[in-house]
Amino acid sequence: ANFPARGEVIFENVVMRYRPNLPTVLAKCTFSVRAGERIGVVGRTGSGKSSLVVALYRLRELEEGRILLDGSDISTLGLDMIRGSRMSIIPQDPVLFSGTIRSNVDPHGLSADADVQSALEAVTLWRAVALQGGLNAVVEDRGRNYSVGQRQLVCIARALLRRPVVLVMDEATANVDHETDAIIQTAVRTLFKNATVIEIAHRLHTVMDTDRVLVMQFGSVVEFASPAEL
Ligand code: ATP
Ligand code: MG
């Protein structure tokens, strides 16, 4: 349950495709993220940014290469560890469970109401949720009564309660207004200070204050340097 402890993430020559007859979407992809580092990932649409998340979350088998979390090959770790409480992934278009806001933010019912509310306040969702019945606000099938940005904020609130060592954020592209985008950016920046943060971004300004920016192209890393050097 205490794994990973430090949060170092290494991709070594990772090759992945979605189906055997399709082209590779990760092509000898290699990079290392130091424990506690905050990196931005940029690249054109289709360059493989979200596929990094797919590989890290073990949603597809790798064809070649390996991914190391604190030195351990993730293919040898249980899925419950990969998808456990110490690594949180905020997908580009998150799906919520039908139920309540509370059950989405705290699926295992481990936190006190006050803490769930604080997490929602921290991501500035509480005002909107309070109008819908507070913690018992209804979440419809897949979260369709929430916007993409709000669904991401719900996932960030969930991650907040878990205090992950690794946070991977795949910024939403569609229909996220500037205000929500700014809220998400600030939340990720301030609330996960000690975590390793991998932040996939669609706007360059989002990554200007990261430690390093990784540029993807055709499934490979073409640059990985401090924002000032790019
Ligand atoms: P965006 O900026 O639009 O989010 P991205 O960099 O995240 O793009 P990926 O989603 O990683 O790009 O896609 C990389 C390639 O993989 C693209 O050619 C895409 O069409 C393909 N792809 C993505 N998901 C699937 C899937 N589930 N099945 C088949 N091909 C896929
Ligand atoms: Mg993507």
Automatic annotation (TrEMBL):
Coiled coil: none annotated. Residues 9-230 form the ABC transporter domain. It comes from the Eukaryota. It is found in: Membrane. Signal peptide: none annotated. Belongs to the ABC transporter superfamily. ABCC family. Conjugate transporter (TC 3.A.1.208) subfamily. This is ABC transporter, putative. The lineage of its organism: Eukaryota, Discoba, Euglenozoa, Kinetoplastea, Metakinetoplastina.
